[in-house]
Amino acid sequence: MMVFKRAMDSMKKRISTPAPASNLSAKRTSSKKSVGSAGKKPTGSAKKKITEADLYAMIQKQAYALYLKRGSCHGDDQADWYRAEQMVRTKYKIY
User: For residues 21-50, b (16+ Cβ closer than 10 Å) or e, as one string?
Assistant: First the structure.
């Protein structure tokens, strides 16, 4: 019971004692800088444009990978293609 009382007393002291103002302002400014730099979006010119030929090749590779994953069984080529197309378009956010 005595250990519990000491623990409660130390918690009350920590809660009731405010942190020094100088530490708070330093933390706020440093967090703002890191958030601001991390939150920047790349410009439109920095994005690599995917051509239709590249898109077709990526879908083709993904569909073949799905075909192999299924055990190379024939008959579901269209399902593999549609699934691969969905996966590639979702990955590159092409809708």
Answer: eeeeeeeeeeeeeeeeeeeeeeeeeeeeee
